[in-house]
Amino acid sequence: MTLPNGWEMVVGLEVHTELLTKSKLFCGCANHFGAEPNTNICPVCLGLPGSLPVLNREAVDFAMRIGMALHCSIAPSTFHRKNYFYPDQSKDYQISQYDLPINSAGYLDLPDASRVSIERAHMEEDTGKSTHLGGTGRLAGADSSLVDYNRCGVPLVEIVSGPDIRSSAQARAYAAELRGILIATGASDGRLEEGSMRFDANVSVRQSGAAFGTRCEIKNLNSLRSLQRAIDYEALRQIQLIEAGGVVRQETRHWDENLGQTSTLRVKEDADDYRYFRDPDLVDLAPDQAWQDRVRAALGPMPAERRAGVVSLLTGASEAQLDAVEVVIDLGLEGYVHAVAAAGGDPALAVARVANELAGDVDNVGHLTSDAFVMTLAMEQRGELSATQAKTVLGELLAHGGDPRSIAAAKGFEQLSADTLGSTVATLIEANPDEWNRYREGDEKLAQFFIGQVMKSTKGQANGKAVIAELQARR
Amino acid sequence: MSDALTRDEVAKVARLARLVLSDAELEVYTEQLGQILEHARDMNTLDLTDVVATAHPFGVTNVVREDVVTPSLDRETVLAMAPHVVDHRFAVPRILGEAP
Asked: What total of structural domains would you count in chain A?
């Protein structure tokens, strides 16, 4: 979207991601999405008197992985109490990192080669989940909220970008790339729909090159699509307000996905005063070089490097192929493509099959060995299987595993002998003299007609290229 | 450190902590808290250039535990302590708006 009259948007994103630890950040309760309400709670995450938090080592490893993947400096850090009164946590403060975060001053390069700076990526605990009921609650005569504290104390890393983003499309690309990185580090499952990754957007507008305008923070962005829509809506709202002589107030706004608009949630009259202070129950965190080296050594390649690795196998990748590569990388299935390339097969065909057939049944890829994948594609390339047959074989391999040759044989996917193909084509030419004459006179579109007819009469067993060769031989 | 603690500052801190103080209490606490700050202010007279700030009285770092799940509390025991429970969840007066 282009903004009117020389306006420019300035966007920074705050991304919260839950970490894939087994237990919570400061206690041994299970970190498990979807458990029965209030079954994973204990004195520590409820903040009962006398309880003491102890930091989860694995959460520190994940936080450092994220920092390293985002080129941050890792520094000694501390934990603070952020004090506020809201029933989503029962101890009236959230433990977070404040002036000394574990990761700071990094960056993220996007596929379009733009760079977004990362101000910090700090650790904190998640809050509980409240459900707001209507007037039917059992609190006499009052509306009520119901709270489940299972999520309370689940480890989070909050990644704060610099105000470097200039369009909603760039914001979306940043969020998508960051998601890929979080998944690649193993720190997050990136499941937006389960809230394991959440976005807040700080949006302001200015005339290009002018000083920053007043920003509004948009909350409740639960998908890449709503992130992009909300930013566009908010930038236009601010521009229209200013052009009508109004002034943007600094406030928190709520995105309504159904209405497609933002509305005021809270006006920030002064800077929020959370009375941050050091949590006296927690000591400094200062991972030494050996600890950092151990974490760095366990870090695999990030999506940008993996993407480049697959693209380098293709010659002059089209836009559609690049999209397919993105699917392959996103699902972490590029091993199949590399296996095909290593065996001398066609990487472009491999990308297409992975991005479609494998992506369509991604939960079952465990059944498909890379050898079986390589062999299926080789059979297709050699013309022993038609494209349709190859897809069917892959479907079978995904469902049950097995050997592609046996599956092809069991399905009756023996290639037609040259004789059978020849006689089939001859019969069809005889039955369709008008089409045959037009084809002979140079109407190449009729080749598709004959391929279709051959496929129909052979139940898809013929190979398209072989049919064309047969037609040309008889022309 | 700035000048003496004011009554307005105490009122603000009380409001942030959701404490309702009477005028008389505001007077008392302004004086008492002021004395504590005054005591801490004595340190301003010392030369602390080479003294590292104390982060924690124990002077230890990196106290961590392994990522192991331990049993949680029995749900019914916990919920029995709550004033109101609906559908195994803590029921609280409806809060307007979202969390900070």
From this structure: 3
Domain boundary at A260, A280, A297, which?
A: A297
State how far the Cα of B23 lies from the Cα of B6, in Å rounded to an integer: 13
Picking from A359, A303, A301, A320, the residue whose alpha carbon sits closest to that of residue A111 is A303
Same domain, A55 and A202: yes
Evaluate whether A433 touches A446 at the Cβ level (below 8 Å). no
Closest CA to A114 of A64, A167, A185, A183: A167
Show which of A268, A297, A326 is a domain's final residue: A297
What are residue A256's DSSP bridge partners? A261
Cα separation, A162 vs A125, whole angstroms: 22
Whether residue A413 is contained in a domain is answered as no
Across A224-245, average pLDDT: 95
* Contact residues, A window 8-37, toward B, CB-based 8 Å cutoff: 21-23, 27-30, 36-37
Task: List A residues 108-167 in contact with B (Cβ-Cβ < 8 A).
Answer: 127, 130-133, 137-139, 142-149
**What interface predicted TM-score (ipTM) does this complex get?**
0.86
A289 and A174 housed in the same domain? yes
- Give CATH for domain B7-45: 1.10.20
Q: Are A192 and A277 members of one domain?
A: yes
Sign of CA dihedral A177, A183, A185, A187: positive
Across the strands, what pairs with A457? Answer: none
CA distance B23 to chain A (A): 23
Co-location of A123 and A151 in the same domain: yes
Q: What is the pLDDT of residues A98-141, one digit of tens each?
A: 999 999 999 999 988 999 999 999 999 999 998 876 654 444 44
Considering the domain architecture, whether residues A158 and A291 belong to the same structural domain is answered as yes
Nearest CA-CA distance, residue B11 and chain A, Å:
14
